[in-house]
Amino acid sequence: MDTHNTPLGPVPAHLVREAVAKKTGLGWVVEFNVATWLNLAVRDETPITLKVSYQDGERTREVRLDKSKVVGGQRILLCGIARLGVNQKLESMSLSLETHSPIQSLLVEELFVQAVDRQTAKHGTRKSR
Questions:
Q1: Rounded to an integer, what distance in angstroms lies between the CA atom of residue 26 and that of residue 94?
Q2: How many whole angstroms separate alpha carbon 86 and alpha carbon 102?
Q3: Number of H helices, E strands in the chain
Q4: How far is CA 124 from CA 115, 117, 120, 121, 127, in A?
Q5: Cα torsion 2, 92, 28, 120: sign
Q6: For residues 105 and 72, what is the distance between their CA atoms, to the nearest angstrom?
Q7: Continuous segment of H or E residues that includes residue 6
């Protein structure tokens, strides 16, 4: 089955830069809180997925953040914590929707992206890599 991708737009560079990578057992992870209220219409019942695409150095990566089903026209909230695995440096990121049928109309009512803040208890400053 064909999928349709609808871009929501890039995340501003200053929001990407303020993110702090943390070390995990499998490498480095950068986390963002992401939420969007959408008012959209589709012709048939269709699954919808909120995706985050990002540049890890020279490599483009993608994570699926949240999913739902849309019937006709409705207002939905898609949200979650985007955990972006990085091997190099997080250069940029953008958000998009993936559906099985085309979106007839789309209004992004709200879009929220914020780096998950990591503080050290000792100095009250952000960890850096």
A1: 24
A2: 32
A3: 1, 8
A4: 17, 11, 5, 5, 9
A5: negative
A6: 10
A7: strand 4-10
Nearest alpha-carbon partner for 105 in 77, 60, 74, 126 = 74
Distance separating alpha carbons of residues 62 and 79, to the nearest angstrom: 16
Which residue is listed with tokens 């919808």? 48
Residue 16, SS3 per DSSP: helix
- Can you read off the two tokens belonging to residue 109? 């009512």
Return the structure tokens found at 57.
């150095």
**What is the length of the chain?**
129
pTM of the model: 0.85
pLDDT in tens, the chain (129 residues): 689 999 999 999 999 989 999 998 888 999 999 999 999 998 888 999 999 999 999 999 999 999 999 988 899 999 999 999 999 999 999 999 999 989 999 999 999 999 995 433 344 445 555
